[in-house]
Amino acid sequence: MATKKVTVTLPEELVEALGAAAREDGVALSRLVAKAAEWELRRRAGRRLINDWQDEHGAFTAEELAAARAEMAAADAQTFSGYGSAAA
Q1: Is the dihedral of CA 10, 12, 15, 17 positive or negative?
Q2: Which of 7, 8, 38, 44 has a Cα at 20 to 30 A from 53?
């Protein structure tokens, strides 16, 4: 993938926190910011899909939302079950 250098202005505290996170992950700051930007674009695309679906089929019911939240919570629990367990 081609890259392009850009200039952005961010609060100093945010830059410091992002720098620390990048060092913790062992990646370049630019890569961490690119991943965050990609995540935001995927989130927006997902929101558009949800809105389009609801425009065609109607709003989700409370039961459908509860089932989706339970499913996401279960997936999160499975994915992140090992994180933090080594602390003591």
Answers
A1: negative
A2: 38
For 77, the token pair is: 């629990």
Place of tokens 């700051």: 29
Where do we find the tokens 């060092």? 23
Q: ∠49-80-74 over CA atoms, to 5°?
A: 55
pTM of the model: 0.69
For 32-57, b where at least 16 C-beta lie within 10 A, e where not — what string? bbeeeeeeeeeeeeeeeeeeeeeeee
Could you tell me how many residues make up the chain?
A: 88
Determine the pLDDT at residue 57.
Answer: 96
Dist. CA 55–CA 49, nearest whole Å: 10
